[in-house]
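Might you be able to check the backbone structure tokens below? Thank you kindly.
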Amino acid sequence: MKLDIIGDVHGCFEELRALTTKLGYSWDSGYPVHPEERKLAFVGDLTDRGPFSLGVVNVVCTLIEKKLGYYVPGNHCNKLYRYFLGRKVQITHGLETTVEELKHLKKKDREIIKNRFMKLYDTSPLYQVLDDGKLIIAHAGIKEEYIGKHSDKVKTFVLYGDITGETNPDGSPVRKDWAKSYSGNAVIVYGHTPVKEVRKVNHTYNIDTGAVFGGKLSALSYPEWTVQSVPSSMPFVAEKFRTFE
């Protein structure tokens, strides 16, 4: 199994195209295909905040439909799904950019992308257990004792991280650094919390390098464990990046 696992894209379509091209993928078919049959994997949060969320959705849907990739949902994916269901969600924290893109589509095209995304979400696992359990991809990570389980508690952890229920001064949830105490053998690759550089702790890699906040879009190649990145075209927002002691 050979994968290139990509961090939170958040609508940064041009960066996705540049990164996959750097990794050796061809876009001649309109979506990235590798000549050596490597596959792409996505840690979730395809949409929101960036300029081309719908383009990212279409590409990832195509890859999954053609069995050329893997995907797990993130918290922003979950919110967009609930929006499409007609649930009462706040159109804030980036969802407003995706909704604005949808408004500019014809009704027929809006229905097509809505149905594609909902099918993607409905048919994707909460987290991916790959290569005989050696590799796990989960949006915000997963505790060792949660692997193989699918309760509401596990879902909350996978989508939002190890949240305490408290909030930071900027309104964001306080998250514990679960990776520091992870001692499992499976390598867990995740995103959700923007860091300036890919962060390896124990058998975990955080690959969300804040593309939508002016950082980089990064990919971790498996089983090589090499990292490739491309710079973001978005404005740099320093306070969005987390630092660890």
Summary: The chain has a mean pLDDT of 95.
